[in-house]
Amino acid sequence: MIEDLPESLLGTKEHWDHVYAQELSNFHECGDEGEVCKVDSSKPLLEFGSGNGHLLVALAKAGYTRLMGVDYSDSAVTLGAEYAASSGFRHIKFETADLLNKDSINLDPAFLILDKGTFDAISLGPEPDMDAPKTAPGARISLLASRYKDALHQCLSTEPSSMFIITSCNWTRDELVQLFKPDFTAIDEIMHPTFSFGGQTGQTVTTIVFNRKAI
Ligand SMILES: C[S@@+](CC[C@H](N)C(=O)[O-])C[C@H]1O[C@@H](n2cnc3c(N)ncnc32)[C@H](O)[C@@H]1O
């Protein structure tokens, strides 16, 4: 069974609002946009939790033409849009929405959804449903993953080859596979540098490519 991660500041909107308000101010002062896969470049790509917009700008530089980011922090959305515009990529769109609240999401379906660190942040956040029973261990992460999967279903195109690629520092491949099944199947993994400790070898970062099961 997958256990809940302890709640942390990193799972709160207040934290990310503060981070991106600060980064936005740095960007205004000195043009610093903050800290810093092959798919048909004309397909629509969406980043869940686009933060400062760095990944989307990198994809635009790589030739991708239909890019969109979504984040629940207005400061992140403003920073992403300003950074993209200042990099010459005004066509990148940024929208505000809470991925755990499907009523706040109104986006065109994307062929590829990317997540770099956003599900990690969500996993550290509070219980999304205040009325749900909080007794069983692992109940919080199950509920968070279920809400997140609703957002994936809402935003991912129904094309059979559409994909969702997630990069996580908090969850292993096996945990991600378990969290996203049965709706999504792992079809590939992008390898990162490994480390060995106590006779075990592992990765500090996991990137998994998921395909939605036909419905
Ligand atoms: C670790 S940062 C990663 C940002 C960006 N993907 C990157 O790689 O730099 C997590 C991002 O997820 C956003 N986020 C967290 N929970 C969210 C939610 N429920 N809905 C939308 N965005 C969320 C935060 O505002 C933040 O921008």
Automatic annotation (TrEMBL):
Enzyme Commission identifier(s): 2.1.1.-
Among InterPro entries, the record links this protein to: Efm4/METTL10, Methyltranfer_dom, SAM-dependent_MTases_sf
Q: Which Gene3D superfamilies match?
A: Vaccinia Virus protein VP39
Q: What is its main location?
A: cytoplasm
Which keywords annotate this record?
Cytoplasm, Methyltransferase, S-adenosyl-L-methionine, Transferase, Transport
Extract the coiled-coil ranges from the record. none
Which GO biological process categories is it annotated with? methylation; regulation of translation; vesicle-mediated transport
What general EC class does the enzyme of this chain belong to? Answer: transferase
Domain of life from the UniProt record? Eukaryota
GO CC annotation, single: cytoplasm
Q: Name one GO molecular function term.
A: protein-lysine N-methyltransferase activity
Compartments, record wording = Cytoplasm
Q: Does the keyword Iron apply?
A: no
State a single Pfam family of this protein: Methyltransf_31
Task: Identify the residues that the record assigns to the Methyltransferase domain, covering every copy.
Answer: 41-188
Q: Which HAMAP family match?
A: Methyltr_EFM4
Q: Which family does it belong to?
A: Belongs to the class I-like SAM-binding methyltransferase superfamily. EFM4 family.
Q: What is this protein called?
A: Protein-lysine N-methyltransferase EFM4
Instruction: Give the originating organism.
Output: Paramicrosporidium saccamoebae
